[in-house]
Amino acid sequence: MVIDVDKRGHTLLVVEDSRSVAGLLADRIGLIDGVVVKVAGTLEEARQVVLANRHDLFLAVLDLNLPDAPDGEVVPWVMSQGVPVLVLTAGLDDNERDGLMDMGIVDYVNKTNPSEIEHVVRTVERIYRNRHISVLVVDDSNSARAYLTELLRRYGYRLLEARDGAAALAQLERHEDIRLILCDQNMPGMDGVTLIGRIRQRYSRSHLCIIGMSSYGSGMLSARLLKAGANDFIKRPFLEEEFFVRVNQNVELIELIRSMEESANRDPLTGLHNRRYLAEAGQMLFDTALREGKGLAVVLMDLDHFKSINDRFGHFGGDEVLRAVARHLGKVTRKSDILARYGGEEFCVVAQNLSVDEARLLAEKLRNEVKSMQLNIKDAALRLTMSVGLATAPGRGLEDMLHRADEALYEAKSAGRDQVRIASEPGG
Ligand SMILES: Nc1nc2c(ncn2[C@@H]2O[C@H](COP(=O)(O)OP(=O)(O)OP(=O)(O)O)[C@@H](O)[C@H]2O)c(=O)[nH]1
Fold first, then answer.
1. In the chain, what are the domains?
2. What region holds the Response regulatory domain (predicted)?
3. Measured in angstroms, how far is the CA atom of residue 407 from the centroid of ligand 1?
């Protein structure tokens, strides 16, 4: 069951009567791409901002002591408007901390400590990004699930629930975007260790992270959960602050791994996939096409006389042309195709589910798209052509198809460029 996939807004409210602290926070938070910061210095001003922006506020950062609200009155009022709250204090005793956490605030921060101001900025950024992160809570107890989802909702995560292992596996099938799983150990049917083991057979540590949870058991249990594939373990009952730190750290780690993977698979100049990705993902397309008896096309493209473009417009001008070509090729390809920069001025498309005639048509469409580009580099109009080699017969594998497409491309160049040549059958 999806219980929260709301589209949160982009506006953040800072309520702080110290101009220097408010200015510092607004400047730092304003650097987060997409976030709009509104500042208020009193409860009355805060009311006006909230009422005017209620549907676009995703978080409020509130000072406890305001000239017209000296005892933290701003906190319950803003929360009553459905806006999550992060509290700025000048120090809290245990009772005050308990009172605020019981109200359901996101976090509290000592504003007199500069490093904690950085913590506010990081927390805001985390919450802003969490709208794209789905968390699956797996627990057979309704009340435990309700508690965990209530905590996670404060941090803006998209939430999914499952009451047992089978339901959890079904949720994973349905929701490709799950990045974190909170998994209870003691469940009827399938326990946490078994479920985590099953999940890890299909989903790697770079795809999602898992936090095991349990109220019983010795240190052995946390070791078993970790060995089964959990990234972390939380023992119940826990302090909410610790829960949030562990959840957020695990999500940050997975984001980091994914962004590193993404940059390893991308060509920085054009933003297209690179040759390394093409080799891996193309092999998967090849295997599926062979298994299911569906056609596969490998189209290798090379811009004609590109050297002369560099000579005329310089290397930066040449780079601009390569970026424009990448954008245009992207208009012709489908989402299910792989479009990659294969080398300097060479591009490659691997497309699935195509008959030989459809593959020919695709290759011609790509060639025509580049030919009809109207480029203006340094105020000079420029026209481009490209030569194309196409392979459709599977032969001995993807490498073999690429090799034959390359031979066909060479023929297209030799025959005068600006044309598509189709590779002969393997061994033909
Ligand atoms: N600007 C720019 N140029 C590149 C890049 N990678 C390769 N090139 C240039 O692409 C040109 C390729 O030249 P050649 O292989 O001689 O081929 P061509 O001039 O396109 O001629 P034909 O392929 O025979 O039609 C070289 O001048 C490379 O410097 C790049 O990332 N940026």
1. 8-128 (3.40.50.2300), 133-264 (3.40.50.2300), 275-422 (3.30.70.270)
2. 11-126, 134-251
3. 18
